[in-house]
Amino acid sequence: MSAFLKLEDSPMFQKQIWSLEHMADDLKNRCQILYKGSKRFMAALGEAYNGDNSFADSLEAFGGAKDDPYSLSIGGFQGPIMSKFIKAFRELASYKELLRSQVEHVLIDQLMHFMNVDLQDAKESRRRFDKAISTYDQAREKFVSLKKNTPGDIVAELEEDLQNSKSSFERSRFNLVNALMNIEAKKKYEFLESISAIMDSHLKYFKLGFELLKQLEPFIHQVYTYAQQAKELANAEQCSLEKRIQEFRTQAEIDIIKASSNIEPSTSSVGICVTGMNSDKNIEAIMQSSRNGEVQTIKQGYLLKRSSSLRGDWKRRFFVLDSQGTLYYYRNKGIKPTGFLHHYAGSAEYNGGVFARFRAKYRTSSCEDNLGCRTVDLCTSTIKMGAEDTDLRLCFRIISPLKTYTLQAENAGDRTDWVNKITAVITSLLSSHILQQHVENNDYARKASSNVMLRNNHHTSDDQIGNRAESVSAVLREIPGNDVCAECNAHEPDWASLNLGILLCIECSGVHRNLGVHISKVRSLTLDVKVWEPSIVELFRTLGNAYCNSIWEGSLLKNER
């Protein structure tokens, strides 16, 4: 370095300065290339960080919510699995962000400082050196051009200017050499230091990622094994479903052939999961099995339903008849859980009328859960072949006190099957075999009768209550208006209309019988003992003659009543 400074402004010094400047310019170009590549690398790391976070967000939206039913339904216990994977992806993204930050501060910032400070300082030092050497040359030329007869004061002034310009030249020369040597020194260590720091950052990034995934490795293998087992189970279920579909198609073809030969089919050709049992005994046995909580589908399939609007148009609906004695149908339009409750409350089938309070208590819970179906009350309904319009084929009607459902099947065999099975279910409901679990361990009628007598301060013993029929009569007559006939006000009525919810005397019961069972189903309080099961008794306790007449005779004047 000292030998280099002693060269002053010699050609060797100029050559060395030029060589250093040439290397500095080449280094600057290389630094610019490295800077652009580092910027692209940092941008790629930023995009990778955003991509990992975006992927984690999409996983969370797909199936990572804890209380989301769809998340829980995908893969059985999908929610907790997704939560762990989402957390892992977010951790990996944070490692990428740490690596990007290291690249920015250790490499890019150092390159920017080297190019904008060190190289720029060398450039400024070169400019000041060129200016100083030019000033020094001019002062030297002026001084050596003096004549012998030049006044002494002028000589002294020019000599002083020469010394000052020389001193300035020396300072600028030292500064230029110092700036160029600083570049040479940093070239040897600063870039290696930055690149090695970046490599160390990569090492930490991959090490952190490896440790994270290593901890998840047993869980990953467990989930993969579970997915393989679920896949095998799904394939087995798919094969089973294909077999059932083939059996269904075969049975459907047999039923079509039987229907064309006017032979009643032995199984349903409309649903895959139907039981296919046609006799009353089989259906009654199925309905009794529902006492154990096992609900089976007796029949299901599509029927054309006539609208109750003025237009009376026909719409295709999917009907289901189950072992609990419930007949319900689904609308073709999509289920809308949020808006259906309002429609449910305003429906003509469920709202208003005598049985509104009773239905509110005994409405089928399965339909409430699905919110996309309408229930047909079979307990107070009857069924008739044909439609009101005699020119329509393959029709039958379900007649209830509130509404008449006109339905049309696809063929004669299907209509016969529907009618037979609905009739069998109605018969079983009226026989109350499906509700015997309510009275096996508790004599409801005896208990209700005892409560009524206690309220009226009649202290009678159990042996004074009498038989079950007398208990039912006593219970029903305690209801407001039930002490007299609903029609003629005769005392102590012994007959009842099941679908109207009223008590009648024997004369009025004969008139009601003549009206037909689709208008009034008449039963005796004392003779038809099996009819008076807890659900029917509770229905009558909810209604009563007074309340029913306020509905059925609501438009009559008082004197007309």
From TrEMBL:
<dbReference type="Pfam" id="PF00169">
    <property type="entry name" value="PH"/>
</dbReference>
<dbReference type="InterPro" id="IPR001849">
    <property type="entry name" value="PH_domain"/>
</dbReference>
<dbReference type="GO" id="GO:0005737">
    <property type="term" value="C:cytoplasm"/>
</dbReference>
<dbReference type="InterPro" id="IPR027267">
    <property type="entry name" value="AH/BAR_dom_sf"/>
</dbReference>
<keyword id="KW-0479">Metal-binding</keyword>
<keyword id="KW-0863">Zinc-finger</keyword>
<dbReference type="Pfam" id="PF01412">
    <property type="entry name" value="ArfGap"/>
</dbReference>
<dbReference type="InterPro" id="IPR037278">
    <property type="entry name" value="ARFGAP/RecO"/>
</dbReference>
<dbReference type="GO" id="GO:0008270">
    <property type="term" value="F:zinc ion binding"/>
</dbReference>
<dbReference type="Pfam" id="PF16746">
    <property type="entry name" value="BAR_3"/>
</dbReference>
<dbReference type="InterPro" id="IPR004148">
    <property type="entry name" value="BAR_dom"/>
</dbReference>
<dbReference type="InterPro" id="IPR001164">
    <property type="entry name" value="ArfGAP_dom"/>
</dbReference>
<feature type="domain" description="Arf-GAP">
    <location>
        <begin position="470"/>
        <end position="561"/>
    </location>
</feature>
<feature type="domain" description="PH">
    <location>
        <begin position="296"/>
        <end position="427"/>
    </location>
</feature>
<keyword id="KW-0862">Zinc</keyword>
<protein>
    <recommendedName>
        <fullName>Arf-GAP domain-containing protein</fullName>
    </recommendedName>
</protein>
<dbReference type="GO" id="GO:0005096">
    <property type="term" value="F:GTPase activator activity"/>
</dbReference>
<dbReference type="InterPro" id="IPR035670">
    <property type="entry name" value="AGD1/2/3/4_BAR_plant"/>
</dbReference>
<dbReference type="InterPro" id="IPR038508">
    <property type="entry name" value="ArfGAP_dom_sf"/>
</dbReference>
<dbReference type="InterPro" id="IPR011993">
    <property type="entry name" value="PH-like_dom_sf"/>
</dbReference>
<dbReference type="InterPro" id="IPR045258">
    <property type="entry name" value="ACAP1/2/3-like"/>
</dbReference>
